[in-house]
Fold this protein.
Amino acid sequence: MTQIAHRARLPKSTTHRLVADMLAWGGLERTDDGLLQLGMRLFELGRAVPLQHDLADVARPFIDDLHNITRKTVNLAVAHGLDIVYVDKIEAADAPTISRSGDRYPIHCTALGKAILAFSPPSLSDQVIQRGLSPRTSNSITSVALFRRELASIRSTRLAFDREELAPGLFCIGTPIFDTDNHLLGAISVSSLESMTGARNLGPALLTISRAMSREIGPYIDASTA
C-alpha cells in the first residue's frame, strides 16, 4: 500500500480507499501472502492478468491446430467465481459466435463451464445451484437432478455439451484442461456446430488436443488462481 501511494503520489488515506474500492470491484486481488496483484476484472477489460495470459500463450498453438482440423470456432476459458471468462478464441469464418475474449457467462449453461464445474470441488456446483440455474434459452438445464446427472456424465467421459443452452442454434463440445499434476486450469471447446451429431464426432480430436496441451503446460501454472 505504501509503495502504491508513493508511486501514485497520493495520500495514504486516499490510496487505502481506492485500493479497497478496486478490491471490492475485482480490479485488484490479494495473493495468499497478502500482496496485491491485478484482478480478473482488468483482464476482462484489457487481458492484463499474467496467469491467464500465460495459459493463453501455451494453449494458442493447440487452439490453432484444433481450428485448422475442424474449421470451427475454438474457445479457451477459465472459471472466475460462478462464471467463466473467455481467455482466447478463434472464430470460424462463416459462423461467428456471440462471445469474444474477455466476455463472461454463467458457468452452468456452456460446455466450457460444465467441463470446468464437473472437475471442480463439489462446493462450487452447490453454490451454482444455490444461485439458481437461470435459463438462457428454452433448452437450458434448470432441473437440479438433471444438472447433477449431467456433471456426473462429464466426469466419466471428460466431454461436456452445450445443446443450444446458451443461444438458439448453437451447439458446442468442451473438455477440461489440466496440468501434469492434474490441477484443473480451465477448458477448451469447439462451437459454431450445427448439430449434436457434429459435436459428438469431435470428441476424440478434442480429447487428444487437451491431453497434448496438458503435457505442454506441465506443472508450472498455479491452478489455485486460475
